[in-house]
Amino acid sequence: MSTKRWAVTRYILMEQLQLLWRAYAIILIAFVVLPLLFAILTGNLGHYSFTSTLTDLGIGVAFGFFISITMSLTYDNFKLLIQNGISRKTYWQARVISLIGLSFGMEIIATLYNFLVTAPARGHSGQAFLGSTLYSLYDHFLGSNLFVNILGYMVFNWLFFIGLGLTGMAVGSIFSLLTKFTRNIALIAIPVLGFFLLVFLSNSSLNQHSYNLDGLVNFLKFLMGYHANAQPGYFNPTVPMLTMIIGCVIMGGIAYYFNQKLKLKK
């Protein structure tokens, strides 16, 4: 890695880490400290469980939201770096490297927290906790070894986090090219179109006489790793992982393309 790229990567990573600890500090205050103060003031301290509250924070979920939002913040750092002689390509590369590194570190922390804090506090074994996550569709595919299954769970989540970050980069790069008026229109139009799409799909699934969705359902099953007579826990995680990798490449390509089109605004 060149000295310039490393310097930009380090700068972006340090900035993200500062934002990350502030975000988690706000989460702790909102979901731990404030409920504790409320319980004390209302005389319901006996009903407050510090352990239960602490283990229900959902570190991984919070990080997913954090990484998608922060990676969509494109223009300010672009403006700063481009004015200091950093190319668009170097900026994009540094963001991708920081995303991969940060998501890997957070996945390790989230996994340790889930299996060493949350699972014991809830009285769950490691395998039982694994079966309560989204990875439960695949938690027996790699065999009965818990360590191997946890590794599969970590890789699965890591790819998902990277995908979220690259999607945020792509969306942020596109929005940075739009005028303020166009961005506002898009922010209104996209949720509305998404709502009507959900309504359309819901009505289509209820009205089988008008639309045959068997092909779509089978395709979604394939993407989820379903195979003949497979029971939950024995789905093949290879297919969704490959799908996420392909999605990461596509989103990374979109982010790179629109990143190259970024310009300083007057």
UniProtKB/TrEMBL annotation:
Keywords: Membrane, Transmembrane, Transmembrane helix. The keyword Transmembrane helix applies. The chain crosses the membrane at residues 21-45, 57-75, 96-116, 155-178, 185-206, 239-258. This is ABC transporter permease. It comes from Lactiplantibacillus dongliensis.
